[in-house]
């Protein structure tokens, strides 16, 4: 029995390692040995053709060394700042995505950035972060409690009486960008009131206070703060999901779905009535039609709740993350003073929460594409790009699979129960019930791991997988990007961004270039004034 299962495992893994999988190998496990008997006739390509030579590795190492030696520090003022957040993108997620894209030596777009660091993501009261406390940290420069949005750690979660104390509020870098007359906005494929983006504009003792039906007296719900709050109402572009948070329960959105508000307020209508030259978009076509030349505010929600995963997206209804990013960049680039823009792929996190590794990896590929697009559209001499995750996830890469092995497939064999096991697994989550029964593990050979809804195995059964507490990567390019090297607390990211952009409270240290920039601006204004005076008289 042990020999039979081991032979089956070797055959199925060799089949999945091959550049083109033998279609017969998709047949039932009973015929697997015979069906895949030809799978080893052609040895699969493994790595670069020259990897067996020491010269290959020496040249590769020397090239990397030369690139690092040539690095120069850009100490210009960062006129523009783009923050790209891959929600839940752990280091193992990056490794697995490279494999998902085609091989170990693949490089994600942001991994090419010259400066890299690690941030420690814990909250004031929790070893493992959620998106609310982590986003508060890297956007405001202050750590807070688990589940709390842009309030300091003296606030108790869910407590609206402490929220009302103004001195407990913390401000994100977006507030200081608006004070400096810069354009501001964000793009996400989650609800626009979800935790990460809420930290831009809202102050709330709970990330779950997204609409009035969820919010106790004494607190303004997050959707209300997005429309009427000091920061929210001044955002130039907002694109994402979550229509339901803005509409009453008896009113339908353009796609025929009702809202969840109980105060009978239509916040979208209120926004359009109170904001000059604003445009509201609700599907892919209306977004494409939006002419940024004639509007000062672009507000779009394309789904009732979160937007669809990329693999399930109906492009006639929902725009892609890149399409939203394109329009957002067009909006903020109009401002001569510069801009601060945040772009989030929050569906990486959601895939991991459901143990659906394929969905998480596909979303990471889309994030990689967005970063690549953003980098191609901006001037790195004056635009700082910072890529990071808000927290990690418990997915691990285990076993000793061969090079070029399908990362979603079986990667090892257990003599203890005489069955193979998957390369990817999670510490906890819903996948437990699919992989275990009362007597032990279910046979993985009978499972369709290429199904996007397939759940990889977990050790502990939970309704939803938890986050993980390990450090996450930070990748930077542009002005003062060298400040993002090292291992540091997550809230340091905001301090480094404020230093580079000359934004933030007066007590925060700013780049010496800030004074030089102001002198140049004043000189330009004086020259323009003198020229105007000369021609007038």
Automatic annotation (TrEMBL):
Listed EC numbers: 3.1.3.1
Known catalytic reactions: a phosphate monoester + H2O = an alcohol + phosphate
Signal peptide boundaries: 1-17
Membrane topology note: Lipid-anchor; GPI-anchor
Alphabetized CDD domains for the sequence: ALP
Cofactor(s) listed: Zn(2+); Mg(2+)
Domain of life: Eukaryota
Keyword Signal among record annotations: yes
Entry annotation: catalytic residues: 131
Keywords of this entry: Cell membrane, Glycoprotein, GPI-anchor, Hydrolase, Lipoprotein, Magnesium, Membrane, Metal-binding, Signal, Zinc
Binding of Mg(2+), residues: 87, 194, 196, 344
Compartments, record wording: Cell membrane
Cellular-component GO terms for this entry: plasma membrane; side of membrane
Co-factor binding comment: Binds 2 Zn(2+) ions. Binds 1 Mg(2+) ion.
Binding site residues for Zn(2+) 1: 349, 353
Main location (coarse class): membrane
GO molecular function, one term: metal ion binding
UniProt: Zn(2+) 2 binding residues: 87, 390-391, 467
Family membership noted in the UniProt record: Belongs to the alkaline phosphatase family.
Name of the protein described by the UniProt record: Alkaline phosphatase
UniProt lineage: Eukaryota, Metazoa, Ecdysozoa, Arthropoda, Hexapoda
């Amino acid at each position: 029995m042990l020999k039979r299962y081991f032979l089956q495992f070797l055959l199925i893994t060799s089949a999945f390692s091959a550049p083109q999988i033998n279609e017969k190998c998709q047949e039932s496990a009973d015929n697997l040995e015979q069906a895949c008997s030809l799978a080893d006739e052609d040895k699969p390509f493994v790595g670069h053709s020259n990897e067996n030579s020491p010269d290959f590795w020496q040249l590769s190492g020397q090239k990397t060394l030369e690139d690092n030696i040539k690095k120069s520090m850009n100490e210009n003022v960062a006129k523009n700042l783009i923050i790209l957040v891959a929600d839940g993108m752990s280091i193992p997620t990056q490794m697995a995505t490279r494999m998902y894209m085609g091989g170990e030596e693949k490089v994600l777009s942001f991994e090419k950035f010259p400066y890299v660091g690690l941030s420690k993501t814990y909250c004031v009261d929790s070893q493992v972060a959620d998106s609310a406390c982590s986003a508060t940290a890297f956007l405001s420069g202050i750590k807070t409690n688990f589940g709390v949005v842009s309030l300091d750690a003296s606030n108790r979660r869910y407590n609206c009486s402490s929220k009302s104390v103004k001195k407990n509020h913390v401000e994100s870098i977006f507030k200081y960008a608006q004070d400096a007359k810069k354009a501001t906005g964000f793009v996400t494929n989650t609800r626009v009131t979800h935790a990460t983006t809420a930290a831009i504009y809202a102050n709330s003792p709970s990330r779950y206070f997204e609409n009035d039906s969820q919010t106790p007296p004494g607190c303004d719900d997050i959707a209300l703060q997005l429309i009427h709050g000091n920061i929210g109402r001044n955002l130039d572009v907002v694109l994402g999901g979550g229509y339901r948070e803005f509409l009453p329960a008896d009113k339908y959105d353009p796609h025929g779905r009702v809202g969840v508000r109980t105060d009978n307020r239509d916040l979208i209508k209120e926004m359009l009535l109170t904001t000059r030259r604003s445009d509201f978009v609700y599907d892919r076509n209306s977004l494409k039609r939006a002419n940024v030349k004639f509007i000062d505010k672009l507000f779009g929600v394309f789904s009732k709740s979160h937007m669809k995963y990329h693999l399930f997206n109906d492009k006639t209804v929902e725009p892609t993350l890149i399409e939203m990013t394109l329009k957002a960049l067009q909006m903020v680039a109009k401002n001569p003073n510069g801009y601060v823009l945040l772009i989030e792929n929050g569906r990486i996190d959601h895939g991991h929460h459901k143990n659906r590794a394929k969905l998480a990896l596909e979303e990471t590929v889309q994030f990689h594409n967005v970063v690549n697009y953003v980098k191609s559209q901006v001037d790195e001499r004056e635009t700082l790009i910072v890529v990071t995750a808000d927290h990690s996830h418990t997915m691990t890469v285990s076993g000793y699979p061969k090079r070029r092995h399908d990362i979603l497939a079986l990667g090892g064999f257990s003599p203890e129960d005489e069955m193979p096991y998957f390369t990817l697994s999670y510490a906890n989550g819903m996948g437990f019930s699919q992989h275990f029964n009362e007597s032990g593990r279910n046979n993985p050979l009978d499972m369709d791991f290429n199904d996007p809804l397939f759940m990889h195995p977990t050790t502990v059964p939970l309704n939803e997988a938890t986050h993980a507490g390990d450090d996450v990567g930070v990748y930077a390019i542009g002005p003062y990007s060298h400040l993002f090297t090292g291992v540091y607390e997550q809230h340091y990211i905001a301090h480094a961004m404020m230093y580079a952009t000359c934004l933030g409270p007066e007590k925060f240290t700013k780049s010496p270039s800030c004074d030089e920039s102001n002198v140049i601006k004043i000189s330009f204004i004086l020259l323009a004034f003198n020229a105007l005076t000369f021609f007038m008289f």
